[in-house]
User: What shape does this take?
Amino acid sequence: MALDDPHVIDRLQTKLLIDGQWVDGVAGTTIAVENPYDGSKIADVAEATAADVDLAVAAAQRAFPAWRALAGHERGRLLLKLADAIEADAANLARLESLDTGHPIRDCLSLDVPRTALCFRYFGGMADKIEGSVIPVDAGFLNYVEREPIGVVGAIVPWNFPLMFTSWKMGPALAAGNTVVIKPSEITPLSTLRIGELMLEVGIPAGVVNIVTGYGHTVGQRIAEHPQVGKVAFTGSTATGRKIVEASAGNLKKVQLELGGKGPNIIFADANIPAAIGGSAFAIFHNQGQACIAGSRLIVHESVVDQVLEQFVALTKSIKLGDPLDPETEMGPLTSRLHQQRVLDYVAVAKAQGAQVLAGGEAPEGAAFAKGCFVEPTIVRAKPGDRVATEEVFGPFVTVLTFKTDEEALAIANETDYGLGAGLWTQDITRAHRFAKQIHAGMVWVNCYKRVHPASPFGGVGMSGYGREMGFEAMREYTQAKSVWINVDAKIPPFYRR
Ligand code: NAD
Assistant: This one.
């Protein structure tokens, strides 16, 4: 495939990847994939069903012994080659991701693609550094612990960052010696298929990665319940996370859940206000707010709220919406029509509870937006306890709340069952550390927001799920401990009777 090929979609594989072959689904049906900018059909991908999952899992099982036996540096070498291939293919991947999701192309080029390559590179480097340990136990015994791969890992990912999430799940899974069956969202399968092509090109062996494009209630459900899948790694909504836990009970497979969030982002009176405003806009409006870690609750000290809102509203109204493929576009459409309506419905919910809409709140008008799933960047001022202050909207929709004291700020921040990301804007280092400790969240950002890196653990607490992606934590998630005892003293009788 040529670089920056405008016809990239025409040449993309749209079948299932099973055992190194691109194949039609057993049922022979397809799923139409739409461009959220203009509603046009951009591809028909094969629709997998439970029978295809069974074939994919069987292929992954067959590939597992050889893949796990490969030296770590050899697995790593293939992942490093994949990272290079992703960088070489950056223009194509960015275009596919932008067409499929509505992400502005400039974000795809500057964030999604480089972060995907970086993640595979990080875990490529990790593949030969998965060390066990020697445990001090009773005299006369050597006890060592090895980290072993689990076997076949099922990966189920959502539509908001489809490309990046392929690397977050497959990077550590493959580095650790597992084989994978991955299901992208039925709404956004294209970049995962391109990653599949690149994996074959760089020589990742047949069956090590299998891609099944299909719906959640069929394909996702079968992966979650499959008796030969040893672990399921899921990113998506809390409601689906619960179903996955239930489905996993049959063989008691390991489950890792990255679920929803309602990120508190607190601006204290002593904050650097311009930095806080720019950072808070990124926190909520990047990727049209379709981010689990979005700073969707802006919690502002009442002494600075007027100043903050005046500038924040002005910045929000200046955000350039448009064609995601236009490099000037700062915000594209939401990823689906259904989701656009869901976000707009929350504006009505907010108004019904007496909230004040300070910016946005509508689908934008004009020919450029007529066919797209757009929602204006929206700021709503509400009270703690309102639905828009507690429920995840998952769109370009921020709820502003105010506080008088630090105790009140903490109480508001923790007034949620979710616990994923949180932001603090303050110059007071003592307060920053105190809040970082007390906030109910898996990740805290101080004077920044939404920083992620493959070396740093990512995940949540409470209704935001359990388990961690990235870093050494991820290697623990994708391996299991085996404890080996050796009797090293001939005088110790190994028998029942001494
Ligand atoms: P979703 O739960 O509807 O779907 C996620 C994936 O699960 C899709 O591939 C879907 O097909 C599949 N699925 C649906 N029903 C299933 C079932 N019964 N069994 C197995 N799989 C099933 O979520 P979504 O709407 O695609 O994504 C948005 C949600 O994801 C938001 O709640 C968001 O916060 C969350 N999210 C979390 C993180 C995180 O890292 N914590 C990151 C991104 C998104």
